[in-house]
Every structure is written in C-alpha cells, then in structure tokens.
Write a structure and sequence with these properties.
about 325 residues, alpha+beta, Type Iii Antifreeze Protein Isoform Hplc 12, 7-stranded antiparallel beta sheet, rod-shaped, RcpC_dom
C-alpha cells in the first residue's frame, strides 16, 4: 500500500477520534436530571365515632341507698348515701339525697338499706313488727316446745297448756290457751317489719348459716299476742307446761294479716278453750271403786242438832 494512503487513513482516524472524544466530553458535561422524590400524600383521617350517649330507662326509678353502716343518732352525710336506679321502687322509699342528708336515725341502719321516712322514726325493729292492739311477748322454749327446731318467723301457732295433777288439780288436764298467734322472732332470727323491710337480714352465706343454727337451737320465741289475751298467756306460762302447735300455711293467716285482718286469735277464741281432763280422754266415765270383801260398809254421814238442853236425834 502506498505510504500516502496510509498517512491519509491515519489522519482520517485521528480526526474521527478527536470528534468522538469531543462529543463524549460534551455529553459528560450535561447536568444529570434529578430523580423525582416521592412526596408523601396526606391521607385524611376520619375521627372515631363518638360513643352514643347513655339513654336512661324511663321505667327505672331513683332510690336512695346507704353505702355504709350508720350507727344510731349519727347524722347522715353525702358520702354515706347514693342514688340507684331500680325497676320497681319500694313503697315509701326516698329518691333524692337532699331528703336524707342531715337527718338522724334512731336505730342502726345497715349498708345497702333503702331509706324511707320510717328509717328516721323512733322505735325498735320489734315494735315495728306489730300493730296497735298487739303486744310482743317472749316465751321460753326448748327443742320440744320449739317444734323440733322447725319454727320460723311468720308461722302461726296455737298455745297449749298442760296442767299436772297436784293438790289444786285433782286430774291432769290440757287446754288451748290462745289460738292462732303469729311468731315474730325465733332466737335471733326476726321476720319482716310492717313496711315489708327485712330486719337483720344476713349478707353472706356464713351469716345465714349462723342464723339458721341459732334458730334451730333457740331458747325463746317472741309471739304477737292480742292485748286482751296477754294476761292469760302470762298466767298459763307460770301454771304449767306450754306447747306450741304450728297451724297450716294453707290457712293463709299471714296473708290475711298483711291485708289488715289481725283479729284471728280473738275470733277463734272460745269461753271453754277446749279444756280436757285426763278422765275425759278415754271417752268413758271413770270406773266405780271396787268393794273389798270383809271391809266395813261405809257409814252414812249424820248430823246431830243440839238446841240448849234438847237434843235432836241424828238424821241419816
């Protein structure tokens, strides 16, 4: 190949290389487009739905209830009471704390007790278990008189009297002293007051078990005795042995009492009160005394009358 041709090709390649290098240098100086930065998009946050306002049940009624035990003659403060909504408010209950704050009870009140005007009236629980014309009288009992320990407040019993044979009573006798009297207290267990409120109600299983044991082992019971029969029961308790006979619950005597009929003992009372002597229990006349052979015949009683010096013959 000719040297001139070679030099021409070399020059051509040199020029091409210069052009390519200039082009590459120009492209390297151009600014690099910045990569787009992702812009955070604010997502609207919906507020949490508000809790629906509590809708009071119009059928519930407010009742003032004690939060703690209150001793007698201690004024009630706002910290001692609260208002509770109940479906059925007890009769006579108070529904506003302003009606009780500053008032003083005459007897101890237990926590959880609903308050009424009677809570601040004087008188013991026992006096509020009877009505005018009745008297609460305690009678000593044992396991037999207490009907085997099964007697409970609210039962109706007949009071029986047994008289032994002695110098005054030639024959043993038994009689009905008072019929249908209401049992108020057995041992330490009491019934309901006249306003239907329980007295001394147990608040735990242990207390209920203790009250049940005391009821079964009671040594006294308290009866609601009509006032006219009070002295009769007192005399009977000292004259002989008393027994309590429980009447059937089917007679509904307690329901009649709550309805205002508290004269059942007076209505069932009779003048004789079923007095029975021992000789009458066999439903036959007493046997005649047997004659003993060889015994002298009984002499007839004679009366001799003396008038001064005269004597009247004895009359047979």
């Amino acid at each position: 190949m000719n040297s001139r041709v070679t030099l021409g090709l070399a020059g051509l390649f040199l020029v091409g290389a210069i052009i390519a290098g200039y082009w590459g240098l120009t492209l390297g100086r151009q600014p690099v487009a910045a990569e787009p930065v992702a812009t955070p998009v604010a997502v609207p946050v919906e507020p949490a739905p508000a809790a629906p306002a509590a809708v009071e049940d119009p059928s519930r009624q407010p009742v003032v209830v004690l939060l703690r035990d209150i001793a007698p003659f201690v004024k009630i403060t706002a910290a001692d009471v609260a208002v509770e909504k109940v479906r059925t408010a007890p009769a006579g209950s108070l529904g506003n704390v302003d009606q009780v704050i500053g008032r003083t009870p005459w007897r101890p009140l237990s926590a959880g007790t609903w308050l009424s005007d009677e809570s601040f009236e004087p008188g013991s629980q026992l006096s509020r278990m009877i009505r005018p014309g009745e008297r609460a009288l305690a009678v000593a009992v044992d396991e037999v008189i207490n009907v085997g320990g099964q007697l409970a407040p609210g039962d109706y019993v007949d009071v029986l009297l047994f008289l032994r044979k002695d110098e005054v009573n030639p024959q043993p006798s038994a009689q009905l002293v008072i019929p249908a009297v209401r049992v108020l207290v057995v041992g330490s267990q009491t019934g309901l007051t006249n306003d239907g409120q329980p007295t001394g109600a147990a608040r735990s299983d242990d207390e209920r078990l203790k009250q049940e044991q005391q009821r079964m082992a009671a040594r006294s019971v308290v009866l609601a005795v009509p006032e006219p029969m009070l002295s009769r029961l007192m005399l009977a308790s000292g004259a002989g042995v008393l027994r309590l006979a429980v009447r059937s619950a089917d007679e509904q005597q307690l329901a009649k009492y709550w309805a205002g009929q508290n004269d059942v003992a007076t209505r069932l009372d009779t003048p004789r009160r079923e007095l029975l002597e021992f000789s009458q229990l066999s439903l036959a006349t007493p046997p005649r005394p047997m004659a003993v052979a060889g015994a002298p015949a009984p002499r007839k009683a004679t009366v001799e009358v003396i008038r001064g010096a005269e004597t009247t013959p004895p009359t047979p």
